[in-house]
Design brief:
Layout (H helix, E strand, L loop, with lengths): L4 H70 L12 E8 L2 E7 L4 E7 L2 E6 H59 L1
Antiparallel strand pairs: 1-2, 3-4
Helix pairs in contact: 1-2
């Protein structure tokens, strides 16, 4: 004997609801894995790069202040004329071991270019290097800030999708339980 049409349609709706719920759960799992494996780590790396550039920028600004002080003191009329050094300072020997040093009046400074390369340059060349380095670090920090903002928007979008799927799943469960009660 053939089932009534209403029984067939109810069974088909239950199957569709179950399939839709399974699809929603699968999509939630996929989006959650994507957040954990890809977006959050990339966002953390981007923030880390930005913070590193900002820390280097702060250190560079401190170096620039020191450079101006040394330039002012070394190139002043006091230095060298009375036989006294123009600047007394401390030099880091490494591992935070310092020694007192006296800088005679000079027109040059030694600049650490990186990778163990040092260059003796004039104060104006050193100032130019500092300015160029500052601009580069600001570009890096700004670029990573923009990238992080875009990534945060992506994370928010994925979170909204997950939330929407969860609401949809709960609504389907509620409707299914109401249908079962009838």
């Amino acid at each position: 004997m053939k089932k009534p049409a209403s029984a067939d349609s109810t069974a088909e709706e239950d199957h569709q609801t179950s399939a839709t719920r399974e699809e929603a759960d699968a999509a939630i799992d996929k989006y959650s894995r994507d957040l954990e494996k890809r977006l959050y780590p990339a966002l953390e790396t981007t923030f880390s790069l930005r913070d590193k550039a900002l820390a280097q920028l702060a250190e560079l600004e401190q170096t620039e202040r020191g450079l101006r002080l040394v330039e002012r003191e070394c190139c002043s009329s006091r230095g060298g004329k009375s036989g006294k050094p123009a600047v007394e300072t401390r030099v880091n020997l490494g591992e935070n071991f310092f020694v007192r040093a006296e800088a005679q009046r000079t027109a040059t400074v030694v600049l650490d270019l990186g990778l163990g390369v040092l260059a003796e340059v004039t104060f104006s060349e050193a100032n130019k290097f500092v300015q160029e380095r500052r601009q580069m670090l600001r570009r890096i920090a700004d670029s990573n800030t923009k990238k992080a903002t875009k990534m945060q928007a992506m994370v928010e979008g994925v979170m909204k999708c997950i939330s929407g799927l969860r609401v949809q799943t709960l609504a389907q469960q509620k409707n299914a339980s109401l249908d079962d009660a009838d």
